[in-house]
Amino acid sequence: MKLIVGILAADERCLTAAREGVTGEFGAADFVSEVWPFDQTEYYREQAGEQILRQFVSVESLIGPGELSGIKHRTNRMEQVLASELAAGVPRPVNLDPGYVEPSKLVLASTKNFSHRIYIGENMYAEVTLTYARGAWVCYPYTFSDYQQQVYHEFFSRVRARLVEQLRGL
């Protein structure tokens, strides 16, 4: 599976620190998305400010799906460290959402249980956020609105293509 980390950041400085933290912790990136405004919801505004930025990092080395809960714990600790180091004037200047792409789906980790999420151990849950079928990403009624955007799908397709290439080489 291909580890991806979705980053929400209060500003460019926080975004850079988060991106560097992700690659320092998990290894070199093979793809980094463009930076997009995160304006589909106001859910994180009190924690991260008014002008939240979104970016994804795809890690070059592959992971096993059983690693996701441990990875989510690591990203949660990274968020806490970055919050104290960045002193950005907001409580949560960086939000890190790990998941993985496999040929048929995108899975995201969460600390929150819900009807469409399954327990994956260590007090963590996971959901299939998107499915890949007939050459396109398919959304579900619960898919976060930003994950329904075509620009995200284009990025995930690049990551998926790289994964397929890597799996053929094994």
Q: What report would you give on this structure?
A:
The protein is of the alpha+beta class and 170 residues long. The chain has one domain. It is built from four helices and nine strands. The protein has helices spanning 12-26, 45-48, 68-86, 150-168, and strands at 2-9, 29-32, 36-37, 53-62, 94-102, 105-110, 118-121, 124-133, 136-139. Strands 1, 2, 3, 4, 5, 6, 7, 8 and 9 form a nine-stranded antiparallel sheet that branches. The radius of gyration is 15 Å and the shape is globular. The two termini are 12 Å apart.
Brief sketch in words of this structure:
The chain has 170 residues and is of the alpha+beta class.
Distance between the termini: 12 Å
| Structural domain tally | 1
**What percent strand?**
25-35%
Alpha-beta content class: alpha+beta
| Uncertain segments | none
DSSP, total strands: 9
